[in-house]
Sequence to fold (437 residues):
Amino acid sequence: MPGRLIGVDRDRIQVAARRVMARCDELARVTATPGEGIERIYLSPEHARVNRLVAEWMREIGMSTRQDAAGNQVGRIDRGDRDAPALMLGSHLDTVPDAGRFDGIVGVLMALEVVRLLRVPGEGGLEATVPLPFALEVIAFSDEEGTRFGKALLGSSAVAGSWRDEWWALTDAAGVTLREAFRDFGLDPGRVGEAARSPEELVGYLEAHIEQGPELDRRGESLAVVSSIAGARRFQIVVEGEARHAGGTPYESRRDALLGASEAALAVERICRAEHHIVGTVGQLEAYPGAVNIVPGEARLSLDLRGELDGSRDRVWSAISRDLDEIMGRRGLRWRAREVHAAPAVFCAPILQDVVREGVLSTLPAGADDPATIFSRAGHDGMAIAGIADVGMLFLRNPDGISHHPDEAVAAADVAVGIQALAEAVLHLGAEHATGR
Ligand code: HGY
Ligand code: MN
Ligand code: MN
Fold:
């Protein structure tokens, strides 16, 4: 089907892309660590500030706005019937520590540009825009990363209605519980259920995101269709040995927890490298009591384990567990693991893969080959939203795949074609719905 975004000249798309890049810079300045990088965590003053900024930008293009009961910022623009289901676009505004300025953020801002392009004449839009048989919503999820409480996808879990009461007791590094943080932010824990959306309210969820991997850069292509999102499991592992004097304790008498944890981290790498599409990462490793002259009696390490398929990922976890039994047994140590996050792999809906593919093709010369279709090793809010709606994703080239790092980058030119592709995808989905697919 030929491109449908008629009446939109390239300059308009370039202006949109420049606005996205400028706003990524503006949002990057809303950080808990000014001068030391970008950090914006769930239920923080920075979270509140970016929600207010994005709400302004939503109203600027005619959207009604609300902050939902879990702190997600939502904008909506109707097409006639105010009760029509909506296509939800968006991504997340929270970050990891010392983050880049595009992970999540660029997807929220691109969604706003798509709404701006697809407004009908009555909303300051284009005469030529094809009417849509559904409303458009943009959501800025509040906690995709899980930086503050360790459990990721809190904002999108609330929207999906999969919030769990056990999460209220989760604590941050300062010992503040999720319940207390909710209240401090001005939210009522007892009303978090009001954020939940029903499947009938949504025709789907479409997210644009940087790839956070090197594939598109290697291919020299701007955009890709996402086939699936890797399933993730996160563990906090404790290794127990015996704290002893660093000088007077002979090696044969030591039960050094840090050395056991270190062997464990190397075992994770060895086992995962031998597998296909499985990655395991130890991102945190701490020794206790943490004095220079004490053999560590305890060590705590995190494990982030992901796989394209849940079954193979879980088999790798069993293999890692067996290896840890051997390591700790040999060293006279004990270990235990607590699972702090789990999200099953999600397959993007074929209809949404198709419209994203059509959208990307609309940005390429006629007769171009199909764009790349790749699976996401990074996690995304779609893993939670898949519980209530079809999920689709569009990837943007991310030079060197650098992400979760200040050097994270995306080219304005790729943002421009990404906006056009996303807008075209929406119009193609509208056409599919209009024909009853
Ligand atoms: O960790 C991830 O994959 C995502 O960036 N939250
Ligand atoms: Mn991230
Ligand atoms: Mn992200």
User: Anything to note?
Assistant: The first strand starts at residue 64 and ends at 67.
